[in-house]
Amino acid sequence: MMDRPSRRDFVRMAAVSTAVAVAGCSSGSSTSTSGGDGDGGDGGDSGDGGSTSSNDDGSGSKWTQTSTVDMTASLKYAPKRIEVEQGTTVTWKNTGNIGHTVTAYEDEIPEDASYFASGGFDSQQAAVDGYNNDNEGNVPKGESYEYTFETKGTYKYYCVPHEMNGMVGYVKVV
């Protein structure tokens, strides 16, 4: 017969379980899988562990030529790096079960480019404030957001509620 755990043992087990669950939810994978495994693998690039540092400019990894990006349940944009021709409309589809945003980093888009964010905001701060105050800019499960890229260059964007989880993407317009 199994003894009941003491209160101290129970609290310790609960703390360990919580820590494991939180770590699983918040860890950005530092190595990605290639294609077809359903988790939004981004073509095998490395170093996407949630860093938003300036050395992660999107230039050193594989670019996928597509105009559709999935926002996944595993808190990723898939593919992470896309390349499109000038004038292309990109569609972000929420294939996950929770809401996401598409929010440009204001200082990570070409100088002459227009700012973009789901919700139609004209600045990064307005997009963050809108999401934090009223969930504005949220793209619910099954819905999508579109933006037409008119200016050549590289654009970096993120999901407001999942940035800390490494949900960051890039668009290169050629």
UniProtKB/TrEMBL annotation:
Matches recorded under Pfam families: Copper-bind
Keyword Repeat: no
Family annotation (SUPFAM superfamilies): Cupredoxins (SSF49503)
Transmembrane regions: none
Superkingdom assignment: Archaea
Record bears the keyword Metal-binding: yes
GO cellular component, one term: membrane
UniProt biased composition (Low complexity): 51-61
A GO molecular-function descriptor: metal ion binding
Feature: compositional bias, Gly residues: 35-50
Keywords: Copper, Electron transport, Membrane, Metal-binding, Transport
Record-linked PANTHER family: PLASTOCYANIN MAJOR ISOFORM, CHLOROPLASTIC-RELATED
Stored InterPro entries: BlueCu_1 (IPR000923), BlueCu_1_BS (IPR028871), Cupredoxin (IPR008972), TAT_signal (IPR006311), TAT_signal_bac_arc (IPR019546)
Region (Disordered): 22-68
Compartment(s): Membrane
NCBIfam families (UniProt xref): TAT_signal_seq
Protein name: Plastocyanin/azurin family copper-binding protein
